[in-house]
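Late entry, evening session. Most of the bench is empty. Finally got around to the prediction I had been postponing all week. Sequence below, unchanged from the version circulated by S.P.
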Amino acid sequence: MRKIIMEEFNKDDDNINISKKNQNDPNIYDLLIDKIIEKKSPFCVGLDTNPHNIPDFLLEETKSELFLARQNSLTSQNQEYYILSNTFGFNNILIGNSILKFNKILIDKIKNYVPAVKIQIAFYELIGPYGLYIFKKTIDYAKQNNLFVISDIKRNDIDSTAKAYSDGFLSNNLKIKNYIVENFDSNFITINPYLGKDGLLPFIENCYKFNKGVFVLAKTSNPSSSQIQDKIIDGQELFKHVIKIIKETENELIEKLNKENIETNIFSNKSYLLNSKYNFYRAGIVVGATYPEVLQELRLKYPDIFFLIPGIGKQGGKISDIKKVFKDKYVGAIINVSRSVIFAYLEKKTNPEYFAEEALNEIKRLNDEFNS
């Protein structure tokens, strides 16, 4: 189930090493912004695929496939179903495969209208180890369909553990001893800042090493965020101290890389701009649409930080407020929409078999509203 390939390495993986390939690659945020402009859509669809909301007909289809696999294990595909169901349990495979089928149908329907998906890991961990397998399969399928993937994991820990999280989700071709192992390989992830610089640094390092991005929780969209994030310390809210630490951490890394004379000129510009035409840091921040005044204040103060903006739809955020934080219409942020899109069929009480069409209709409506 998990491909492992042995390969000898000649370089020390513990050191930051920017390859020639990465030197010539556009900054990940440049690529994302170009895709936003191409599709005229600043939205990413959150695959918060709560199995309780999956249409019953998908479960029945999947159940029939599993029963067939149990009865006939002659083909390689059926053998795989049979082995997995005996390893993880029939019900876990049933729910997991139904989630994956739901995700694939959605991706096929929306892929030409949005630049990215954000996959919330909680709904995959919900069904245990097999859920992480489905999480990975969803990442792979989205990337195969030319969508950027934000893995919404909100991880962090002390430096050594943070490095393990970072390597697991951001590295390409992770080396363990003399073996390359397949990992999650997301384009972006969400992380929390509560452990300070030594918890942030391993993630930001891998952003430079593998041309990836992170979004750090700053001012989140949930109502109780103010209980902690708005606490006044030294005359300003805690979330503003967090953003300052995020920038300091990345700037210190860039200064270090310059001093070490890495074999590429990618860091020669000490103003952090890298080779980016849009000039954004690799560490973005999460700022909720439910706090439009904060969004506008932070955009004015931090024109060089890219925003991930949740809170549209069910949480009450308005597109009219968010449009003001973009530069040149499409530059500077990506807006997450989840339940209001993927489960639009429930809101509209339509035939569950048309769930993907209803999701597409909602995305088209959002794009039209943003572009109006």
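Two things to note before I forget:
The radius of gyration is 21 Å.
The first strand starts at residue 4 and ends at 6.
Will write this up properly tomorrow.
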